[in-house]
Amino acid sequence: MKFGIRKPSLKKRIAARTSIKRIVRHNLGLKAPKGYGWITDPKKAAYNRVYNRTTKGCRIHALIMFVTVIVFMFMIISFVV
């Protein structure tokens, strides 16, 4: 299992949206309600639970960096004035 920052993959995103399995399942209405992953695929549900609790999205790090830069710029401006 991987730990750390998620690396978005355009290739995997497109593959997931255009798979035959997904098209058939959506057209036949065979979707389970949200939260029923532990019934349909317990192994995947367990993996996802651990993965989502141990990784952080890349947006969080970008936001932290942005706020840090803004605070740093504010400090420099207030120091100069």
Explain this structure.
The longest helix is centred in the C-terminal third of the chain and has 23 residues, at 58-80. By secondary structure, the protein is mostly helical. The N and C termini lie far apart (51 Å). It is elongated and about 65 Å long. The chain has helices spanning 10-17, 20-28, 37-40, 42-54, 58-80, and strands spanning 4-5, 55-56. The model has no long low-confidence stretch (mean pLDDT 84). It has five helices and two strands. It has one domain (8-80). A two-stranded parallel ribbon has the order 1-2.
Question: How would you concisely characterize the structure shown here?
Answer:
The protein has helices at residues 10-17, 20-28, 37-40, 42-54, 58-80, and strands spanning 4-5, 55-56. It is mainly alpha-helical. The chain has one domain.
Nearest-integer average pLDDT: 84
Q: How are the strands of the largest sheet arranged?
A: 1-2
Straight-line N-to-C gap: 51 Å
Number of domains: 1
Could you give the order of the helices and strands? Answer: EHHHHEH
Strand content: under 5%
Q: Tell me the major beta sheet.
A: 2 strands, parallel
The number of helices is 5
Give helix % range.
Answer: over 70%
Q: Any idea what the shape is? A: elongated
**Count of extended strands:** 2
Q: By helix and strand content, what is the structural category?
A: mainly alpha
Low-confidence stretches: none
Which value, in Å, is the CA radius of gyration? 20 Å
